[in-house]
Design goal:
By secondary structure, this protein is of the alpha+beta class. It comes from Hymenobacter mellowenesis.
Length: 306
Amino acid sequence: MKQPSKDFQVLHTVTDYTRFCGRPAPAHPLLTIIDLSETRGQARPTGLTPVVPQLYSIWLKKGLKGNIYYGRQSYDFGEGVLGFQAPGQVFAIDETLDLSEISGWMLVFHPDLLTKYPLAKKILSYSFFSYDVHEALHLSAKEEAVLDGLLRNIKAEYEQPIDAFSQDVLISQLEVLLSYANRFYHRQFLTRRTPAHDLLSRFETLLTSYFAHEGEQPLPTVQHFADALSVSPAYLSDLLRTLTGQTTQQHLHHALIEQAKHLLLSTSLTVNEAAFRLGFEYPQYFTRLFKSKTGLTPAAFRFSAQ
């Protein structure tokens, strides 16, 4: 399959985005909703030039036949799912993409819409904007109806003449939509128990085997385990937090401390040697982490166990 080129088309404004989709200029300069069924039969960009929107987008795509590249991976959008894209994320359209049966919607908004609102900071905590495409949210019919209703309210608001209250109302409605998406994602972690618990089991197995090797090794990282499990770091942490109450980093710290206790009590390694064995470049960082988790320095812990 042909790979995307190295050239980029940057979409700076909401108008740029609607033009890219072959739709009229938006009624609001910073936000629009695109009815994807209206893009059926339209000419689409040829080739695989990557597109980089400097915008947020939330989309529910159904009936899309073919592949879209995100990064350098291609994904089949045959199944209707809800997804999120943050500014600066790259995608490219396969020239064989079939839009003849596409439906759904896309909400696109510029970061400037959030300026001076608490949501500008809060949206950074919504880690689903960092999920990979294959981690998109599977909606029930009831959940889809809830979001469709919110979309209608947003559309009705931004199509009115702009007044002193317009932006406040739009931000409030957008925040409600994101809150529902957050709720639905956590529901998915709990209700899709087989895939979620399988991922948890695989993570625990990888974590155990990581510390089973003798000798020095790099510090374990969230990225390492996410790559090994073929998920994004944000998705892995959110799933683990929902199922276990702890993020990936917290799991890694716990495993490190348990391995450190084992080394301190069962070997004659010095504290510095134990730190290097665990992957710490600077022993003082090891001591600081150990004390923050146990209340004792490594030396004090070893002494207390004698």
